[in-house]
Predict the 3D structure of the following.
Amino acid sequence: MGIPPRGAKLHRILRDGLPYTVYTKLASVAGIEHKELARYVVIPQATLQRRAKSGRFKIDEGDRLYRFAEVLKAATDLFEGDKARARQWLLNPVRGLGGRCPVEMIATSAEAEAVLNLIGRLEHGVVV
């Protein structure tokens, strides 16, 4: 998708501004509309249009997109590469998250961490 998994390259791309092309790829891979992704990562439509013109996201916006990508990858791994099942899980309420949808928990690092922690527990068979 154009996002390095970790390390100095990831840090630099987030600091310099995540390219807008990553946003379009992310929406496509996730199987959701651009408008919905913007809502989940808390980027207003007017801002999204400005970023499309400039070609880059600001640091905080890119960070939220990175969190979405990280959660999407973890969910896809949880379902052994089945993107449809991962997408369904992300878009529906989950008991282990207090009945919230995982995609609605991307806006803050604490909420995204809760989703990733739940995925980790599910991968290891911990009852939630």
User: Anything to note?
Assistant: The longest helix spans residues 59-78. Helices lie at 8-16, 20-30, 34-40, 45-54, 59-78, 83-91, 109-123. The radius of gyration is 14 Å. The CA atoms of residues 18 and 58 lie 7 Å apart.
